[in-house]
Amino acid sequence: MTVQAGPRAQAMELRLATAVWKPDHVRIELTGPGTELRVVTNGDSTWTYMPAQHQYVAQAGGMNPSAA
């Protein structure tokens, strides 16, 4: 991935892992240098967790992998 911020561009390698358990359970993990993010949904709620900050956001609603 290359991130462009104004005149500066920075390249970084990120690892993306996904797991889908139909019909509506999804887990996404993104890891890289200084980056870690997890998103989990059960179809009714979605949680986004940032381990380094020990913070999460919970939202009503889910992601539907069949809709893609």
Describe this structure as you would to a colleague.
This protein is mainly beta and 68 residues long. It is 0% helix and 62% strand. The protein has strands at 2-5, 8-11, 15-21, 25-32, 35-41, 45-50, 55-60. The protein has a five-stranded antiparallel β-sheet with strand order 3-4-5-6-7, with no helix packed on it. A two-stranded antiparallel sheet has the order 1-2. A hairpin with a 2-residue loop joins strand 4 and strand 5 (35-41). The protein is elongated and about 40 Å long.
Assign an overall shape.
elongated
Major sheet details: 5 strands, antiparallel
Residue fraction in strands: over 45%
Oligomerization = single chain
Low-confidence stretches: none
Q: In which order are the strands of the major sheet placed?
A: 3-4-5-6-7
> What helical percentage do the residues reach?
under 10%
Count of individual beta strands? 7
SS element count, helices = 0
- Order of helical and strand elements: EEEEEEE
Q: Whole-number average pLDDT? A: 87
| Helix vs. strand class | mainly beta
How many angstroms does the end-to-end distance come to?
Answer: 23 Å
